[in-house]
């Protein structure tokens, strides 16, 4: 497997890859510039929208809407009218924080984490948000809330707090929307970079973007062992998501941040997005009930 350059987005902090099957499009964001991208697989063209907030998340909502995380707020974005409907603020008293990665469970609840803008240790939390806009905190003392993935049977949630270098497994109660710590599924050596965003394939293996690790790594969460690495020509890999007609293509986001001038000359594709044709398949993302 190899990574193919898809689009020169030159993101400061590219994140949030998402496959929108109905539109046959990949979405992603540049957190720091507040830019939302859509790459149409039919038209082979990119459309962008700009917001006056950091944007860390894009998910599919009802009808022609997307669900976005903008700073500490969750909003509904109408793709036809291009208008925002503000839904709820999370941690509105913590101005030094912002929302980060998130996904929806099989019931359409949004699970999303927070982090401090200056990476203050333990300043973030993990929340869920149901269709009635009820916010529930599940974990605190999180530093950089990142990748999430559910197993096929919805009985396990895998979660990454990046600086811990671990993927933790939680017992997941879909009916109640509750989690309970089970085990440390994967421990990643510092030499391989820092675990960031991730997704799961139909074989139950985790595909993890390694920030500073120049690749997407496939791990077995049952054995904790590394299966393979797909190298990318940039150091900071931020996230990945399955998509395409057969759900066998990974969209991979990257970042330009934390690279000096000489490093950017050495890795000029930093901040761009890539596609990886895999030998396995992922799952359609769950739509948001908001």
Automatic annotation (TrEMBL):
Domain SMP-30/Gluconolactonase/LRE-like region: 13-256
Keywords: Hydrolase
Domain of life: Bacteria
Enzyme nomenclature, EC number: 3.1.1.99
Methyltransferase is among the record's keywords: no
Coiled coil, from the record: none
Enzyme class label: hydrolase
GO terms of molecular function: hydrolase activity
Residue ranges crossing the lipid bilayer per the database entry: none
Family, as annotated: Belongs to the SMP-30/CGR1 family.
PANTHER family: REGUCALCIN
Name of the protein: SMP-30/gluconolactonase/LRE family protein
Species in which this protein is naturally found: Shivajiella indica
């Amino acid at each position: 497997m190899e990574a193919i350059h898809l689009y020169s987005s030159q993101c400061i902090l590219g994140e949030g890859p998402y496959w929108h099957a109905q539109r046959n499009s990949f979405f992603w964001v540049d957190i720091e510039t507040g830019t939302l991208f859509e790459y149409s697989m039919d038209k082979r063209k990119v459309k962008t929208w700009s917001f006056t907030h950091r944007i860390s998340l894009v998910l599919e909502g009802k009808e022609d809407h997307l669900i976005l995380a903008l700073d500490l707020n969750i909003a509904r974005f109408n793709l036809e009218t291009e208008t925002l409907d503000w839904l709820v603020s999370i941690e509105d008293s913590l101005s030094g924080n912002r929302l980060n990665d998130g996904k929806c469970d099989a019931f359409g609840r949004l699970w999303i984490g927070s982090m401090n803008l200056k990476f203050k240790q333990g300043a973030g939390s993990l929340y869920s948000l149901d269709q009635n806009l009820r916010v529930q905190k599940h974990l605190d003392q999180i530093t950089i809330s990142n990748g999430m993935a559910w197993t096929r049977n919805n009985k396990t949630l895998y979660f990454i707090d990046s600086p811990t270098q671990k993927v933790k497994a939680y017992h997941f109660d879909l009916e109640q929307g509750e989690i309970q710590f089970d085990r440390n599924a994967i421990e990643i050596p510092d030499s391989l970079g820092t675990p960031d965003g991730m997704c799961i394939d139909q074989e139950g293996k985790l595909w993890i973007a390694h920030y500073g690790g120049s690749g997407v790594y496939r791990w077995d969460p049952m054995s904790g062992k590394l299966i393979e690495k797909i190298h990318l020509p940039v150091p900071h890999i931020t996230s990945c998501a399955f998509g395409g007609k057969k759900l066998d293509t990974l969209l991979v986001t990257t970042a330009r941040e934390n690279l000096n001038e000489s490093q950017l000359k050495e890795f000029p594709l930093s901040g761009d997005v890539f596609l990886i044709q895999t030998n396995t398949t992922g799952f359609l993302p769950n739509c948001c009930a908001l």
